[in-house]
Amino acid sequence: MQTSSKPHFISIDLSPVANRAHRATALGQAPVWEGDPLNALDTLPSGQLTFDSIPYVVLDPERQTSGSIVALHPNNQDGLPATVSIALPQSFPVAKLHILIASGSAAHGREVGSAALYEGTVQCARLPFVAGQNTGNWWWPETLPGANLAWIGENPRCLRVGFHHISWSVDNAGQLVPNRLVLTTTSPRLYVIAITAESVSADCIAVPEGRVAPDPQRYTRLGGWRSRSLRATGRFYTAQMDGRWWLVDPEGHCFLSKGVNEIRINTDPSPALGGRMLYQENVLRELGNAAAWRARTQARLSDWNINTVGEYSDPAFHATYPHYRILECATRAGANWFGRKLCDVWSTAFSDACRQAAHIECTAGKNDPLLIGYFIDNEMPFVKGADSVEHILTQYLRLPADAAGRVQTTTLLRNWYGDNVEALNLAWNTAYADFSAIEPPLTENANYAADADRFACEIMLRYCEVSTTEIRKVDPDHLIIGCRFAYINRRMKEVLEIAARYFDVISFNHYRENPIEEGMEMLRELCQRHGKPALITEFGFRGDDVGLPNTHGAGQRVPTQFDKAWSTGRYLERAFAQPHIIGCNLWKWNDQPPTGRFDGENSNYGLVTIRDEIYPDMTRTIRRLFGEAELRHATGFAD
User: Fold this and answer.
1) Which pTM does this prediction carry?
2) Rounded to whole angstroms, how far apart are CA atoms 101 and 136?
3) Torsion angle, CA of 88/92/93/95, rounded to 10 degrees?
4) DSSP class of 615
5) Burial tier of 456 (Cβ tally within 10 Å: 0-12, 13-18, 19+)
6) In the chain, how long is the greatest CA-to-CA distance?
7) Going by DSSP bridges, is the β-strand pair 257-260/581-586 parallel, antiparallel, or unpaired?
8) What would the pLDDT profile of 595-634 be if each residue is shown by its tens digit?
């Protein structure tokens, strides 16, 4: 394993609590320091400065209306507070705090104040300021055993003024993520000039020797774009820059998820062949073992500018590549994405499944810096005509009378129709004797369809509330990347509005020719309105020139591998130009068996054949488009 210890610093913004100017003439304020306008730190510069090898930002008093430093007094003399609370950057793992500090005169060994870090209301670390140890008089400052003398200046009242630099080791593991710093003084005055927080650098994330970043001049070893950087937190998060959404990797670099799904050797068992896995058989016959396959595959990933291991891939890659985890909450509770059947989201089985899935997957993922985030499910049906062949209301009206979902369905219908079954009959053109007798109507009219769409929103609300709550109980920090909707169109608008309130990212599979077709503009507007990005979790095309049947599977069929590569490239050009799209993950690594997998899919999706041979047109296209992705995304250039 290779690691380094290069630190990452971030300046703490003191402007909301700064209350004194360090220059006597600043903004015409007087007195500004110790009640004497000539007694200040006039020779101290402002801006980005370095003291004792630590970068700081000293506020410019000419640009601040309230002051450039923080002054405290235990008795609130001159209107100075005894305590201030300072907001810290969100999701920043603090390893050290560096503080530029001085005090008034005090007896050596006396505690004159403290700094305390809080996560919510819980104090998680405290540093006492002790006179003569780590804090000293700003007049005639002396050498201290627990702090370094950071700066010396003078003013008309004193030939030697200055302050000290304290380095406070808060948490060497870098796992502490406080949200608040509280400064307090007990005697006498305390002055804080600037504060810098230091994290355990993302460079300290262990990366195995075999992991080689594509084009190290442009990309970091994790696949982040060197040309754009934001705050490093040690984990993935989303952010907007110049109106365009990005993932931000643990090192603070802008990142687009450029991935391939199902990168694994033991894939696609074919029922027609008794469960044999032809791809695995071919690879082992050539290479002898899975380790050799992983080494070759890893070299290909780097060569093709692939920076993300997509879903359903070999977990062995999780230690070296950014990746996702899928909880399959609904599936654990009886749903079936292939059969377009949803589970009962009001049942205890669903609540228990969410809790169990979060315990398993989020416990395993919460300390994983290469985990991008969690998928809740894959292709669950919510809206007829979009991701379902029938209304979910129809499914729930078939549930047993005592099922929680059926009881809730009846309750909702009663509420919507004022407990008047005749009003419902008039709307649906039915003849039910009472609400308990309601079954799916033989003919679905427009009113029934409208009620079904309204019901889908209730389903989505319950689904999101239960699943996200359980995830956040275990892992409050990693992204929740939605449920991989099977499709996006305008019929899903209201369901997506609810999803956007709960998910950090809207994820969807999209087997269409054009990523900006009908429905995509609606998604773009929704993402802009809710301040959320979107991720394309599956897409792909199938060529008809390699002997595979291509009779089962999603996506457009095209005549040749050249056409497949051209269609893939055109799709990626358009997708990465969209401001809300933060990644595209191709389906899938290798071709499917001609005899079909469990659901019959037998198609030419792969970057490699079932014998692990490269499709050169496709891999050249992927290498080029994934290599251009960040620039296209930053500029919006699609053609």
Assistant:
1) 0.69
2) 8
3) -60
4) -
5) buried
6) 97
7) parallel
8) 999 999 999 999 999 999 999 999 999 999 999 999 999 9
